[in-house]
Design goal:
- The complex is a heterodimer of chains A (384) and B (316).
- Chain A has helices spanning 2-11, 13-44, 46-50, 76-81, 144-148, 198-204, 225-236, 243-257, 260-289, 291-299, 304-336, 348-374; strands at residues 56-59, 86-100, 106-114, 125-128, 139-143, 153-154, 160-161, 168-171, 174-183, 193-197, 214-219, 239-242.
- Chain A has 384 residues and is an alpha+beta fold.
- The longest helix of chain A has 33 residues, at 304-336.
- The radius of gyration of chain A is 29 Å and the shape is elongated.
- Chain B is α+β, with helices and mostly antiparallel strands.
- In chain B, the strands form three sheets. A six-stranded antiparallel β-barrel of chain B has the order 1-10-14-12-11-15. A four-stranded antiparallel β-sheet of chain B has the order 2-9-7-4, with no helix packed on it. In chain B, strands 6-5-3-8 form a four-stranded antiparallel β-sheet.
- The longest helix of chain B has 41 residues, at 141-181.
- Chain B is rod-shaped and about 175 Å long.
- The two termini of chain B are 80 Å apart.
- The chains are: A alpha+beta (384), B alpha+beta (316).
- At the A-B interface, helix 4, strand 2, helix 6, helix 7 and helix 11 of A face helix 1, strand 1, strand 10 and strand 14 of B.
Chain lengths: 384, 316
């Protein structure tokens, strides 16, 4: 029976391809758009993805997301250090500063100032140079994307010469020397990321009364991070979040105040609808076309259950093929776009979500067809 | 045959590739390890502060009473000096010349006294002669009076000449004192921490931005700890404290409480800017470094933890 079902399916090549195409397209659209959406949302906290060492981030209570910079007094780091259960606490500067490029244009850069002594919060991966080179005078470390792109030198003949180690640039009218190139996770605004030491960052930064953006904290071994967060909030009046909480806070802000989730949500729903429309309709047509065969089988004594199993098998077959090709195509797309500005993030949950969506489409299509088959009178065979 | 399996194969490959993408994409980024390990508070509940190492006499910025060009320096950086030792001397040629003039003037007044004495003796002698003459016709009353007054004037002149000596001596003394004032001496026992002057440079009187000579007793060194005013209430006098050397948490030392600085001051940001940013006010607590042989210098920063009252329980 199963063999007959498959034979029936593959035999009508046009319809077979049609259904598979519809499902592939739906699966591709849902997977790829969700992946881009997830990629964008991941980029919003790209800086947090990179900075994995500190357990807890302490900041001004009014901070809404990672790039919402509301600096603190420098003595707050001392106060946080004094909270029970804190293993260490170091200051971090994060701010947007203007870099003047050799061709005279300006580029806003995301400058991160690391604690002078420990250099905690540094980039996860150095491509050239060492993090400790930041101890040199006027030293900065630049990320690998902007070295080739936004901070590259434009030569007279229009070529773009990437920034090298040893090159100097001007940060807010101060001299800065590139001593290293690091790889960072791209951020939402995709500004060049420049790492330097805290004290140097405060020199680069415009004169302000408060300059320290974050206090990075690690809990003592055996200390629960959430309890410590509460204790820090109680003791200092500042906001303290674990890394995951801070990520959530950032994502929540972008979900609430940007149109991104609606935009992508609509596309995903459209993909789903298109999938149902094309695949469901074609599958339905296919069943209708083969109705007489089902009738024959029924006349020959096949039970309803057997016929239902056949339809389910057919649906499962086209569903898994469409799904497989769809997610495969989405992955290829993602891999190809890996080195471009496009964000693409493909966690296993997305694979499951997309599978569920395809299953739903198939189930809906199969349900329609099953209805037809159950109501089928075997006598239909002898009509026409 | 191939055509029949083409789509399922494609699907299997597709799914396989997707799983591969998921697996390769879900790698977590390893944390960037700290360059040196940060310090960790050694107490259960503590107040953290930034400490600056200083001399136990505090760092004394030596000034000069009178401005002038430096002619001689008797110490070099790092020298141990005793209280009263000479540090440097300003140019003294004008004062030496003045001394010579005034000493000469003193000698002149000395001779003036001799002259006045001789002149007085002469006039007294003449008066005595005149008074011995009993014959009133031989000398007039007027002449006798004239001689008497002449003696009185001569006496007064002698007194004046003697007073001139005192005055000249005082003037010589004044110049000698001035000469001593341009010689700057160490007010305490200690070490020369900074020497920012050279022979030939002008040393202004009053407070200078960089001290001419920075002097202080560095045995033992003290640590001046800045504690945020919000945490100041948690610090008890005499509370134990530990200081960590920056750059190597293995080097630490126990501290001994010396005193509170009773006046809470605005914190200075150590940004190196000429205009300091006022962040907040800080209570300064002075601790003494007991451990000898610690590789630490005056002026260096240390991370200090002071054992304190738990802030979460008493903060309401």
């Amino acid at each position: 029976m199963n063999f007959i079902a498959l034979k029936m399916l593959i035999g009508d090549r046009a319809k077979y391809l049609g259904i598979v195409m519809g499902l592939t397209f739906a699966s591709l659209l849902i997977t790829q758009q969700s992946a881009i959406f997830l990629g964008l949302m991941t980029r919003t906290f790209g800086f947090l993805t990179d900075t994995t060492l500190p357990d807890i981030w302490v900041m001004d209570p009014k901070v809404q997301y990672i790039d919402d910079l509301k600096p603190l007094k420098e003595t707050e780091v001392l106060r946080v250090r004094g909270v029970e259960g804190v293993a260490w606490a170091v200051p971090m500067y994060k701010g947007l500063l203007k870099a003047r490029l050799p061709n005279g244009t300006f580029q806003t850069c995301n400058v991160v100032g690391l604690d002078d002594e420990t250099l905690i919060g540094g980039p996860p991966q150095m491509l050239q140079g060492k993090l400790s080179d930041l101890r040199r005078s006027d030293a900065i470390i630049v990320d690998s994307f902007s070295v080739r792109d936004k901070l590259a030198r434009v030569m007279p003949d229009g070529r773009r010469e990437p920034l090298k180690i040893g090159d100097t640039m001007e940060l807010n009218d101060h001299r800065a020397v590139v001593v290293g190139i690091c790889k960072v996770t791209r951020t939402f605004q995709s500004q060049p990321v420049i790492y330097t030491t805290y004290s140097r960052a405060t020199v680069f930064a415009p004169r302000e009364r408060k300059l320290m953006t974050f206090v990075l904290v690690n809990a003592k071994p055996g200390q629960d991070s959430h309890v410590l967060c509460q204790r820090i909030q109680q003791g200092t009046g500042l906001a303290a979040y674990t890394r995951d909480e801070f990520k959530k806070l950032t994502v929540r802000y972008f979900m609430k105040y940007t149109g991104i989730p609606i935009n992508f949500g609509v596309t995903v729903v459209l993909g789903f609808i298109v999938g149902i429309a094309i695949a469901g309709q074609t599958f339905h047509n296919f069943t209708l076309d083969n109705l007489r065969y089902f009738g024959t089988l029924k006349a020959m004594g096949a039970t309803d259950w057997t016929l239902l199993r056949m339809i389910l098998l057919q649906a499962a077959m086209v569903g898994s093929i469409g799904y497989g090709i769809g997610v495969g195509a989405a992955s290829v797309f993602g891999t190809l776009s890996g080195n471009t500005e496009l964000s693409f993030r493909f966690p296993w949950q997305l694979l499951a979500v997309s599978a569920t969506a395809v299953t739903l489409i198939c189930a809906a299509s199969a349900a329609l067809s099953m209805w037809k088959v159950i109501r089928l009178e075997p006598a239909i065979v002898f009509k026409s | 045959m191939i055509r029949k399996y083409l789509l399922p194969l494609l699907a299997v490959f597709g799914l396989g590739f997707a799983v591969l993408t998921v697996v390769s994409g879900s790698k977590t980024i390893p944390p960037a390890m700290p360059f040196v390990d940060p310090t960790s508070p050694p107490f259960v509940s503590s107040v953290a502060g930034t400490g600056i190492v200083e001399a136990n006499t505090e760092n004394i910025a030596i000034g000069t009473l009178v401005p002038g060009v430096i002619s001689e320096i008797y110490v070099s950086v790092g020298d141990k000096v005793k209280s009263g030792d000479m540090l440097f001397r300003l140019d003294d040629r004008d004062l030496k010349a003045q001394l010579a003039v005034r000493q000469a003037a003193l000698r002149v007044t000395n001779t003036n006294v001799k002259v006045a004495k001789a002149s007085l003796s002469d006039l007294e002698n003449q008066l005595a002669l005149a008074e011995r003459i009993t014959d009133r016709r031989a000398i007039s009353v007027e002449e006798l009076d004239r001689r008497r007054f002449a003696v009185q004037i001569a006496r007064a002149k002698l007194a004046q000449a003697k007073a001139d000596i005192v005055s000249a001596k005082a003037q010589v003394n004044e110049t000698a004192i001035n000469l001593d004032r341009i010689l700057v001496r160490a007010p305490v026992d200690g070490e020369v921490l900074q020497l920012k002057i050279h022979p030939g440079e002008y040393a202004p009187a009053g407070i200078t931005q960089t001290p001419l000579v920075l002097l202080g007793n560095v045995e033992p060194l003290n640590v001046r700890v800045d504690v945020d005013e919000n945490d100041a209430w948690r610090v008890r006098p005499g509370a134990p404290a530990v200081a960590f050397l920056r750059g190597n948490r293995e080097i630490s030392t126990d501290l001994e409480f010396v005193r509170f600085e009773p006046y809470v001051i605005p914190k200075k940001s150590l940004t190196g800017d000429s205009i300091e940013r006022v962040d907040t006010r800080v209570l300064q607590v002075i601790y003494s470094i007991k451990q000898a042989g610690l590789p630490v210098f005056a002026g260096q920063q240390m991370d200090v933890y002071i054992e304190a009252i738990d802030n979460t329980q008493n903060n309401g």
